[in-house]
Amino acid sequence: MPPPSAKESLDAPLPGVVGDSPAMRGVYRLVRLVAPSRASVLLVGETGTGKEVVAHHIHRLSPRADGPYVRVNCGALSESLLESELFGHIKGAFTGAVDNKTGRFEAAHGGTIFLDEISSMSAKLQVKLLRVLQEREFERVGESRTIRVDTRVIGATNQFLEDEIESGRFREDLYYRLNVVPIFLPPLRERRGDIPSLARFFLEKYCEENRRDPSEIPEQVLTRLQAHDWPGNVRELENTVERGVVLSHGQPMNWEAMQPGHEANTRARKSKAHDLEGMIEKLVRLALQKLAPDENNLYDRLVRGVEKELLEQVLPLCDNVLVKAATRLGINRNTLHKKLSEMRNSTEDGG
Questions:
Q1: Of the candidate ranges 68-82, 110-124, 275-289, the one whose mean pLDDT is the lowest
Q2: pLDDT higher for 280 or 121?
Q3: What is the pTM of this model?
Q4: Are 115 and 155 in contact (CB under 8 A)?
Q5: What burial class does residue 210 get, using C-beta atoms within 10 Å of its C-beta: 0-12 exposed, 13-18 middle, 19+ buried?
Q6: What is the C-alpha separation between 220 and 261, in angstroms, rounded?
Q7: Strand, coil or helix: 227
Q8: Which among 122, 131, 191, 199 counts the fewest CB atoms within 10 Å?
């Protein structure tokens, strides 16, 4: 057989990654083209689409493969903790800093750092990250000595950063530094042709892990799997197949064995949607009651009123802890703090 062409080599599935759809072949091609370079990469995709898997492959295929690969979830830490985690600190820099600490950027010198949920990073840390990308240098928290690093940055987000820039939550200059090579990870519903091969891959994996005899997935079950929208993407499909393996007792996979989770998830989503609709209706009604009958500029006043009512209801539910409230609302803690400050200022001004 003749050797594969350059195009076929670039488009071939990556080791351990399942999927042969045109959308995924485009991902494989970009990964192989960008990996040998020093360029920053921005991975964009919904939760569960495999951003970290792709980041690993970029590192593995790069000249930095023998260097460290360091992952940081920017959305899991507060601003102060994330700053210390990324850049390190010296002893006594703040309460609890009992020893010097090497930051993740320093630890990733000569390798790759993967910054997941990068859109949740505060404005202060965005400035420090921009400097690292531009100048390859930073200072530890509490120290004036400049540290230089050679670290490749891969960022990942499930948000459209263009929208975050427009809303003032993300720096435009940082976006252009990160977005040298963007790679979009398609949701599973946009590559349904990959579902059968993914399902069989997970079936084999979990049969082996659970010491079950090799099983099979009947065509009618595959049809049902392909018809599902998979809001949790590949991760949700994996969990569903694992559940099917556990509950099928070594017999051929059946839809009923997978259904309990689907039914529970569906009921939970419907219940959540119903509760949310009720809350929105209540908030709008409360906001309208506070507006004069002949009020002008109704839309802006109503939106501000609804937002105020929402914050006043959510904060007590979260014991007035901003981090918990921001997580519940699905917004950044700094954004919540800004909204609360604006709300207090408006109240003081008689608005």
A1: 275-289
A2: 121
A3: 0.71
A4: yes
A5: exposed
A6: 18
A7: helix
A8: 131
